[in-house]
Amino acid sequence: MMSMRNFTIYFLSIILLLTSFTLMPSKEVKAEINIKKNPYIQAYYTENAISETKNSTSYSLFSESEELVDPVIEEKIILETLEYYYQEDIKVADLLYNITSDENIRDKVLSTERQDKIEIMNLIKDIYPTIEGDSEKELLYGYLDRYVIGPENTEENIQEFIDQITERDNDGEFSIASTSTYNGTGAGNWAYNNYNKYSTNYPRFTGSFGTDCTNFVSQAMHVGGGKPKAGNWTISKKNSTYWVINSAAELNYSWKLTDPSPWISVKTFRSYWNPKSKVHSFSTDYYRANHKSIYSRNILKGDVVILHKGVAGFVTTPTHLMIISAYDSYNKDFLLAGHSRERQAYQLLNAISAYSYVEILEIP
User: What is the Rg, in whole angstroms, of the alpha carbon atoms belonging to the chain?
Assistant: First the structure.
């Protein structure tokens, strides 16, 4: 017979599931995000409701003070990224329908089922050589890049195809950024020594606008590692009026940078640096099980760690950035420095606890 306590937990879980489809994001999230139409956001809220129900009945290992990013800000990043994915995937669906005339193509492109995504990725691989427009190629490449994940689940033929596209298409800005000297040890040491410091030569995202994680890693790479600013990965000071940033207007008034900027944005940093770097990617479970062998790879101080939240087991959103600042030779793990919540030498094994997926970029 079900106890009153178990009945209450069961009842609350049902309520959470039923309300998850109508929950609105925090007030900071753009109003144009349409939760009811976006299957990725629907899945995110459903999974969150289930997770919160489980957490309410079990002991939590992590307090709010141990979170790497303010959860309100991180949710904003997640929702905006999932909306971006959805809008881009609609364009992919329209393009593929025009090519194939398949009435089911839209449902498969927007599906949260892994097998449907694999089918679409293989279709894109087959038709990509026939696509002439650069914007269409970029659209299809973006779809492949979004949904190829970890070594235990990766479709190797798709990943190899992505690598071929990257090698063939990258020139100019790519060669400038990737062939210049990078002192990874210097970058890691700088991050370790400056994890709780803020330079007035760069904006400080400790106000009510944005997070400082990508800004900190970019500074470590440039100031500590000697990586020259190049292309869109750059920033310069206009005046000293606004150092602590509370709005986009303040940022644009006192600082010159692109919009969006890979210097300060996690998602844009990833888009800029992934094609230029050797990328090691793992699910959280895979890293936990294999961190000792991963530790023996050519992953070093100054390499960058991108942490992703996950939806439906494979739709991932990059929300936090850190840099390797030291090594834990005893546990065979990497130690990370980062901002948003200041960390000097934080174990990657701990950092991934709140995330589903991790990428480690060997910065060239």
Answer: 21
